[in-house]
Each structure stands twice: as structure tokens, then as C-alpha cells.
Amino acid sequence: MTDFSTIRQYNFPTVIRFGAGAIAELPGHLRANGLSRPLVVTDPMVAQLSFFHEIRRALESKGISVEVFSDIHKNPVKSDVLKGGEAYAAADRDSVIGIGGGAAMDVARAVVLRVHHPRDLFDYDDLIGGDQYVTEEVPYFITVPTTAGTGSEVGRSAIISEDDTHRKRILFSPKLLAKIVFADPLLTMELPPFVTAATGMDALTHNLEAYLAKMFHPMCEGIALEGVDLINGSLAQAVQRPDLESRSRMLLGSLMGAVAFQKGLGVVHSLAHPLSSLLDTHHGLANAVNLPYGMRFNIGGSEGKFGRIAQVMGLSRHDGEAVVERLFAFNREVGLPVRLRDIGVREEHIDTLADLAIADFAHPNNPKPVSREDFKKLYTEAL
Ligand SMILES: NC(=O)c1ccc[n+]([C@@H]2O[C@H](COP(=O)([O-])OP(=O)(O)OC[C@H]3O[C@@H](n4cnc5c(N)ncnc54)[C@H](O)[C@@H]3O)[C@@H](O)[C@H]2O)c1
Ligand SMILES: [Fe+2]
């Protein structure tokens, strides 16, 4: 029974300019807001791509001074953020633009926090109440996603790891929302098939976990189901024969997943995060492999919701097991493994993985409580 005497908060605040060619509006937007000295945060790969050079040229041709910071890790760490903060100050910047996948956008967001917040970066960790220290102004922040996965472009958190332990910490504040997102599917056209598949399964995981998460939030649930539909119908095409339509649907589906997961995530993300900490596994790949197992764990108690997911996915049977079978088949269809042993996990890792998973921030919102024993069982099953 839903308790309607509780007051809840629902937020859908970000301005999103979505569509082929939207990136062309970036220089004019900066100018219109009196900004001319952005720090562009990206990753070392994206910094080499031709669209990145074009964005830079377009900005410079409007008299905008561009400083690029791209010295970041695949799973970003605190020292990346500190260096980015130094680059902002040294080059006297007035704004931050994050261009890239979740890694680049998360570092950009953490740099936005860093600029006027000098405490130790992890004092701002949301899990220890760090958002209370996010009291100062932050620089104007713009995001430009170039993968369709994390949806970090519309997020208010940055996932940054400790340099030594690689434990993932979460920096959170509504102040860290981008003022505007330029979501241009043309920037994702050349994403390689593996990255398309892995990031796309991350987006699917966000929508599924958000839909199932235990908070009462029908608006997010509506968005999540529509996100599942978009991804279910376009990811295979985006991997195998990418075109503007499949890339556009994926970019929206991923963005919607992140809008929806303000409702919460769940067991799959908690299974996945330790793989990145321990084995540097790509976030999306880690989610993809764990997704069918985690969803099977969640069926009991959420049968009605699984029925709706099955319906949205166009399955012939409307039950949880049909969804799980579809997810196994989906991974195979987009060329991803379905076993943890295929991504380097060994039996001797399981205890450490279970310790990390139980300490993770995602599973408290899972529809069903998850114990350390459950994590061990799920890893063993997926091995
Ligand atoms: N903030 C959040 O809410 C949130 C949510 C989920 C995950 N994350 C974080 O996001 C990160 C993962 O992000 P991701 O899945 O986008 O991967 P990513 O940012 O690591 O990018 C994957 C790869 O694709 C390359 N790439 C990016 N755009 C490209 C393009 N257009 N063409 C060709 N190559 C391109 C990158 O250089 C990189 O090698 C992790 O650090 C994870 O912790 C954050
Ligand atoms: Fe994710």
C-alpha cells in the first residue's frame, strides 16, 4: 500500500537540446550567456576524434578560448579531478563543458564541484552526508554525451574512484546538474560496436532497475518503461547497422534511463561496480553480464511489473522468466558475453566481490533486500 501522507520530491529540471546537429548551437549558447573561456573536459580517445576537433574549431571561430583537459582514467579517479581543477584555475576559466561518455562527463561534473569547494574531494561523498558541504557557487556547466549509456549528461552525481583502492565514491548535489545538454546523435555515429553494445546495456539496466526500484515514483516509472521500449527496439540495429534513427533512439533511451534512476537503482549495479573496482571492467559490460541474473533474483514480489516489462518488450509470454530469457538472448545478439568467467572473473574473486557489493550504494533501493550471501550466490551463478 502506498502511503500518500508522505511528501516526496520529483525533479525533471534539465534543458535538453536533442537532435541531429544540436551541437552547432553550443558556441552561440556560450556567447548568449556571456561565457568565453570554457574548460572542455573529455577523455584521451575522444580528444582525438574528428568531431571533437570540429567542436573546438567552431568554438574558436566565435572567439571562444578553449582549454582542453583530457588526462583521465577509464574508471576516473580522484587525482584526475584534482588535476582538472588545477587546469581550470591555471587557465582562468569561466565554465566547464563535459564532452564524452560517462567517464568524461563525471570528471567534468566533479571538476565543477572542485572549483569552489576546497575540502578533500571525498568529504563531499553523498553516502557520508557530504552534500551538506556543497554550499558555494559552481561554474556554468554544459554536457555533451558521445555515448548512449550512462545518461550522466542529465545526472547530478559523479562516480569517482579512490586512486589506491579503486572503491567507487559518489559525489552528489542538485547544483551539479548541467544547465543545458546538447544531445546530438550524430556524435555517436562512429561508436564502435562493442562500446555501443556495452553502453546500451548500461542504459537498459538503468531503465529496468529504475522501474523496479522501491520508491513510489510513477513519473519515473513511465519514463523508464518508454526507455526500455526505445532501447529494446534499437540497440541491435545500432550495433549491427547503425543509422541516425537507431542512434537517436538509443541516445534518448539512455538519457531517459538516467532521468528515471533518480528513483534508485538496484542489485545489478551493485553486482557491477565491484567488477570495475577490482578488474577495471567497463561499467556497461559489467552491468550487461549481471543483468539477467539480477533480474531473475528480482522477479519474486514484482511479478506485475515484470509482466509490464515483458509487454513493453513485445514478448509472447508476459512473465519474469520471459524477460530474463530475452536479456540473455539480447546480450548474445549484440555480441556480449553471458558469463562472468568470460570477462576475467575467477572463483577466488567472489568473496572480495561480495564484500564490495554489499557496501555499494545502489542496492538499498532494490525492490527486494539483498544480503552478502545473495551477492555470493548471484556471482557464483553468473560465473
Ligand atoms: N554519473 C552517473 O550517473 C553514472 C551512471 C553510470 C555510469 N557512470 C560512470 O560512467 C563511466 C562509463 O561511461 P561510458 O559507459 O559512457 O563509457 P566511457 O566514458 O568509458 O566511454 C567508453 C569508450 O568509448 C569511447 N568513446 C566515447 N565516445 C565515443 C564516440 N562518439 N566515438 C568513438 N568512441 C567514443 C571513449 O573514449 C571510451 O574509450 C564509468 O566511470 C561509470 O562509473 C556514471
Ligand atoms: Fe550504470
Structure explained in plain terms:
The chain is an alpha/beta fold. It is built from 13 helices and eight strands. The chain has helices spanning 26-32, 50-61, 78-90, 102-115, 193-212, 218-240, 244-260, 267-279, 283-298, 303-312, 320-333, 350-358, 372-382; strands spanning 15-18, 38-41, 67-69, 95-100, 140-145, 157-161, 168-172, 180-183. The strands form two sheets. The chain has a six-stranded parallel β-sheet with strand order 1-8-5-4-2-3, covered by helices on one side. α5 (193-212) packs antiparallel against α6 (218-240), α5 (193-212) packs parallel to α7 (244-260) and α12 (350-358) packs across α13. The site of fe (ii) ion (FE2) has 6 residues, from α5 and α9.
Outline: globular
What is the rounded Rg? 20 Å
Structural class: alpha/beta
User: What order do the SSEs take from the amino end to the carboxyl end, as H and E?
Assistant: EHEHEHEHEEEEHHHHHHHHH
Number of helices: 13
Q: What does this entry show, briefly?
A:
Helices cover 47% and strands 10% of the residues.
Secondary structure layout:
Elements: E1 15-18, H1 26-32, E2 38-41, H2 50-61, E3 67-69, H3 78-90, E4 95-100, H4 102-115, E5 140-145, E6 157-161, E7 168-172, E8 180-183, H5 193-212, H6 218-240, H7 244-260, H8 267-279, H9 283-298, H10 303-312, H11 320-333, H12 350-358, H13 372-382
Parallel strand pairs: 1-8, 2-3, 2-4, 4-5, 5-8
Antiparallel strand pairs: 6-7
The chain binds nicotinamide-adenine-dinucleotide and fe (ii) ion (FE2).
The site of fe (ii) ion has 6 residues, from helix 5 and helix 9.
Summary keywords:
single chain, alpha/beta, six-stranded parallel beta sheet, binds nicotinamide-adenine-dinucleotide, 13 helices, 47% helix, 383 residues, binds fe (ii) ion
